[in-house]
Structures are given as C-alpha cells and as structure tokens.
Amino acid sequence: MLKRISFTAAIFAAAAAPAFAHLNPAEHGSVLAGISHPLTGPDHIMAMVAVGLWASQQGGKALYAVPAAFVGTMAIGFLLALAGVHLPFVEPAILASVMGLGLLVATAVRLPAAGASAVVALFALFHGYAHGTEMAGAGALEFGLGFLIATAFLHAVGIGLGVGLNRFGPRVTRMLGIATAVGGAALMLG
C-alpha cells in the first residue's frame, strides 16, 4: 500500500511541478501566461485533475466527452467575461466545483456521458468566466488559448492517473477524490 501511495504522490508532484514557474508580468497577455495561470492555483489544479479522474471512472465516451465539455464551456465562460456579461457567485462556484468534483470522484458517481458532461460544463462556465475577468484587453485571446491548453493538460493528467490507478482497484482514485473535496473545503475556509 505504501508503494502505491508513494507512486501516486510522485505523479502528483510531477504534475504540479510547472506551478512553480513564474512568468514576467509583461507577458501577462501571452499564451505562456495563459498556460501557467491554471498551473499556479490549487483550485484549478484540483478541479481540472478531478475532471480527468471522474472521466476515467466513467469510461467509454465520457473519457473524452467530459473533458471536452469542460474545455468548450470554459471557453464560453471566458468569452462571456470578455463581453462584459455579469455572472454572479463566480468564486463560490469555483470553490464548490472543487468540492463537488472531488465528491463525484470519491463516490464514483456514474452518469451517462451527456449527464456527466453537463455537470462539468456548469462548473467550467465559472472557471472560464473567472479567467476572462482576470484578463481583458490586449492579448486576451492568446491568454485564453494558453489556459485552455493547460486545462486540457490537467484533464489528461487526471485521466492518466485514473486509468493507471484503476488497475489497483477503485480505492486509490476514490481517496484522491476525498483529498480533492477536503482541499476544496480548506480553500473555502481559508
């Protein structure tokens, strides 16, 4: 068991390593700034990896449909923010998404691909909107492209973890879901 936990911790450490990179503030509107942004926030990392973990638990079409729904709806949220549309409760919804996605993984909730996609799309709208409010003006589209790339990468990390861990049974993946939900609660209280 200790070997499995060590293996999982090593994978998470490798996935989070880019979070320590900081870009020059003058590059805020660049693709690189967009890529680095989701990798520097624990809320983003936990939610995006959880989407991949949950997709791996769903299997089948959901393995691709769930992350695609998240990325696509995240882009819509980003564009709504750039257009000046007001979306209420953005930060609470983002924190709730971390806890909610963690609980979905922890309890291994099974839904049809369309249902699971709709759930993550709701969360994604708020994540994308938050990115759009942080970045307006020159370079916004480059920044948006960057954070979409980073989001897809974090989903892929979650899928890879989930598929790899499923060989050992569902317990380790479910424990990661619990850790994500607890992490979301800690962020909410902090």
Automatic annotation (TrEMBL):
Designated name of the protein: Protein hupE
InterPro entries reported in the protein's UniProt record: HupE_UreJ
Protein keywords: Membrane, Signal, Transmembrane, Transmembrane helix
Cell wall biogenesis/degradation recorded as keyword: no
Superkingdom of the organism of origin: Bacteria
Transmembrane segments: 31-55, 62-83, 89-106, 113-131, 143-165
Record's keyword annotation contains Cell cycle: no
Signal peptide range in chain numbering: 1-21
